[in-house]
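Example (one chain per record):
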Amino acid sequence: MPGCGKGDKQADPKAGADPKAATEAAGTGSGKKPALDKLIVTSDGKPVAMTRAFIKRVSPDQWRILVGDTEGSCEELMSGVTNKQPGGTSFVASVGKRLKPDGSEAMVVTDFWSAGHPTDSVTSAASISGTADRGAEVAIKLAKIVDVDKARKLEISGSFTAVGCGEQAPPAAGLPKAAHPSTASITIAGKRLPLISATRTGDAIVVTSGPRDCTPPTVPAQVTIEHRAGRWELTGTWFAQPSASTDNALGDEARTKDLKITPGDAGDSTDGKTVSLALAGAGKLGDYPVTFEGTIEALDCPK
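Predicted structure:
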C-alpha cells in the first residue's frame, strides 16, 4: 500500500479487493462514510480526492490514521496489512500528544508513511476530537504535511472525519500476567499520572505509566523513568526526546537530590520475584519538574 504504520505491511497487489467493493466498504463497521471534502491532498500538484479515512487508538494519547482514495478499511488498519490498488493513493499518520516543560500540551504528527514505507516528510500539528471507538465519527485536522520521495511529491492539509476502528489489541508478549499493587504516581509539568508497572534489574529501576514485565517493553507508555548508576532518564510518548539528570551534579544542576526510590519488602508473584518500591520527593529531569509519591510492587528481574 502507499502508506503503512509501524509494524504494518503492504499486501500483494494481486490479492487486493476490487475498487468497487473497497469503496462500498469505506464506512466499514458503522454504516457511515467519512466526510473528506475539506481534506486537501495533491500528488505532484494534482488534486487527489480521498474517499475513506479510518482511525485506531494505539495506546493512551496515541492514534493511527489511514486515509485513501481506493484502498483501506478498518480491518486493514487494525491488522496492519492494506491491499494495494492499482493507481491508488493512501497514507498513514501517527498522531500523539506532546507535553512541554511548562505544562502546555500539543498534538502532533509523530510519523508518516506513504509508498509503503516511513518517510522523512515535514509534519506539523494535528487535532483529534472524539473517541476512536468502533463506528464512532472522529473529527481530525492536519496541518500541512509535505512528503517528497523519488516518485512524487505528496502534500496534505485540512480537516475531515474518520471512522473509528477501536483500540489496537495488546501484544501477546511483554505484559505482566498478574496485577501488581500500586498507589504510586508521578506529577510531571503539573500533569499527574498513575504508575502501573515497575522493574528492578540489578541497580536499574524503571517505573512507568504503561504495562511491562522483565522483557523489553512492547506497549508504548506516556511516561517512563529509569534510574541507573546515579543517572535518571525520562522517556515516553509524551516527549519528543529523552531528558536526563544525574545524582552527582552540583549547584543549579543538582536537580534530583530529593527524588527517592527506596526498595522495601521482597515477595513472589506469578511473574516472578517482586520488591516493594517507595517513591517520594520532587526534582527536575532535564527541564521537566517531577514529583513522586506512593508505593508500587516491582518485578525483581534477573540480571
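Caption: The chain has a mean pLDDT of 87.
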